[in-house]
Every structure is written in structure tokens, then in C-alpha cells.
């Protein structure tokens, strides 16, 4: 997988011409892309989430689309609608006017400002990768990715995403506030009138080919068992779980959390030059794959328990195959 490692590094370096810092964030986003998954980016306004997605579309060579979510946004505004128009013979007929979702890389900006009705329409698009309207099924272009941004839930005027919709995102990545050095560099790069010229490094065909190759990366049974035990350890009703899980967690991860860890770990293994997935690769993606799939109960919310801290403790508690053998 040496060509993949080279391409991954080129994509990241090209993006860093425009984006200051966020090294781990860029890695996680690219891992999700090559795993074929959707990404939810969470952070307060003004941290460059939208700019990151725009930069990614330029570098990765995919056709971008954008939806700016507002409370009055309707499903037809993103999916498309039937309109009456004349055909080449002058007869009036119904035609389907495609919406912005018919792009390779869809940016859904401030997704938690859309109403549940519009969120449900987007849910179908993410899962089925198709739009059904007027009895017709329209297949979305391949590859297709949704990169959604959202503000933290305490921001005003937001509709919390339902658990079913959250589960459709492969990764949930938190966008941190820049440190001092990054802020200084941002002031240097972004206060002029010129922007860095970014070159496309890949295209849709390359992405699809590499996705198929990465999916063949073997996962040994002990590694799959370890990932499965991690998922079971997030469920409070399981015997022997962490006291924090039993006390503060209402619902644990779904099987999609396991799928996300395995798919993401395959990319991590390829990046390290390995020929098979290890438990270290599983641990590398555990936080981004599980943090939105562990739902706190009322006490956990009231105590302001951090899900990331719970996951860290799970990684310390659940033994790897090497630890069990020792």
C-alpha cells in the first residue's frame, strides 16, 4: 500500500497549504473519506469547518455541493423537485430538477439548524445514497460523502440530531480552538487578498479504487473480538462494565460503531505500512467512531460527564489479545 501512503501524504500536505494546524483533524477526515464514511464536524462558529470542506473538495478532485441549513429549509430544497417544462417537441412534461445533494462531496453547514423533517430527508440520502421522489429513484453519483458541521448543542436555535441520524455518521470529529502559534499563522495567511492555489491530487475513480483495495485488508479474529468487546463495554446492561458506564450511560454503541472502527482501522493500518489490522489501529479510531454513539442518561448530562473520558477508560479496561496472553 505504499502508493496509498504517498497519496495520503500528498493530500494532507496540499490541504495544509490553506489550513493552519489541525493535523489530527485532517488525518481523521481523510481516513473517513478512504473508508467511504460520512463525517460530522463539531465546533463553535468561526473555526474554519466550512473552509476545511471546501479545501478538501479542491484537493481531492470531487465535485462539491453545499446546503446551508436554516429552520425554514424544506426537504425539496436539498433533494430536488419536479417542475413542468417543455420537451424538444413543445409538449409540457414533468422533469426532475436535481437538488444540491447530487454532488460527490456534500457540505451540510450547521446541520442542527435544520428541522427534523429536513434531517430525516438527509438521513435517507446518507444511508441509501439515492433520492426517491414521485415514484422515481435517482441514484447519487459515486463516490458520495456528506461532511456536516454543527455547533455545540447549547447554542441557541438548534435542533439536536436524533440518534438514528447521528449513527449514520462514521466519525464525529471535534474542531478545537487554535493555539497561540496557529492563531498568529492564521493572521499572516488570511488577512491579505491572495489565497494559496491548490492542485487536485486525486479524483473520484482513484478514491473508489483505493476504497476497494483497503477493504481487503485482513482483520484477524482476535482483533475483531477486541473491537467487539469495546462496543459491548459501552452498554450499561452488560455484566462487568465500568461503574461510569453503568451509572451515566443510557445507550451504548450500535453495531455501526464496530463497523466504523474496523473500516477506519484498515486505513490506519495501511498508513503505517502494515499488512493486517492491529488493536493499535482499532484504538486509534475508537474516540471518533464511538463518541456520538454513546448516549448519556439524565445523571450523566447533569454531571457534565465527557464521553471521551468514558471511552479513554474503556480503552484502559478492555484487554487487548496481547494483554490477555501475558
- The fourth-level CATH homologous superfamily of the largest domain is P-loop containing nucleotide triphosphate hydrolases
Task: Identify the overall geometry.
Answer: globular
- Mean pLDDT comes to 84
Q: Which stretches are low in confidence, meaning pLDDT under 50 for 5 or more residues running?
A: none
Beta strand count: 11
The proportion of residues forming helix, as a percent range, comes to 40-55%
Order of helices and strands: HHEHEHEEEHEEEHEHHHHEHHEHHH
- Hey, roughly how much beta strand do the residues contain? 15-25%
CATH level 1 class label of the largest domain: Alpha Beta
Q: Taking strands numbered 1, 2, ... along the chain, how are they ordered across the largest sheet?
A: 2-5-8-1-9
The total count of helices amounts to 15
Structural class assignment? alpha/beta
Report on this structure.
- This protein is of the alpha/beta class and 326 residues long.
- It folds into two domains: 2-206, P-loop containing nucleotide triphosphate hydrolases (Rossmann fold), CATH 3.40.50; 217-325, Orthogonal Bundle (Helicase, Ruva Protein, domain 3), CATH 1.10.8.
- Helix content is 46%, strand content 16%.
- It has 15 helices and eleven strands.
- Strands 2-5-8-1-9 form a five-stranded parallel sheet. The protein has a two-stranded antiparallel sheet with strand order 3-4. Strands 6-7 form a two-stranded antiparallel ribbon.
- Helix 9 crosses helix 11.
- The longest helix has 17 residues, at 255-271.
- It is globular.
- It starts with a helix and ends with a helix.
- The mean pLDDT is 84.
